[in-house]
Design brief:
Strand content: under 5%
Largest sheet: none
Shape: elongated
Low-confidence stretches: 9-13
Length: 119
């Protein structure tokens, strides 16, 4: 399930290697993170990487990255960027795909979320 990353536990201690991968995803959510490459980097199988990452973060790498991308999309929208521009910047195949994922994660469309969260 995709969950709003604001509900992620923050106090959990993540082993350094997985914490570094998670930090990269947060810092550069626009990048692709092939599980096979991440697993090879840590010297484990792809299945082990997914299992260990989920055990340590509470999310699969894919769901974690989607949450990072939606957090970044929120910042883009607050900064005045269009949904299309945010989708292009964050590696979504289309504005529609970003909107669909945003709705699943945030519980509302990007436009509705922005109206409710203008500061």
């Amino acid at each position: 399930a995709i969950l709003d990353s604001a509900r992620l536990p923050v106090a959990r201690q993540v082993p350094r290697e997985y914490g570094q991968v998670a930090a990269r995803m947060r810092q550069h959510p626009e990048r692709a993170y092939p599980v096979g490459e991440l697993a090879a980097e840590l010297g484990v199988t792809a299945a082990s990487f997914i299992s260990d990452f989920k055990r340590e973060t509470g999310f699969t790498p894919h769901v974690y990255l989607l949450n990072c991308r939606i957090d970044a999309a929120k910042a883009c929208l607050r900064g005045g960027m269009s949904v299309k521009a945010a989708a292009d910047r964050l590696g979504f195949p289309s504005a529609q795909h970003l909107s669909y994922t945003f709705r699943k994660v945030a519980g509302r469309s990007p436009q509705d979320w922005l109206r409710a969260n203008r500061t």
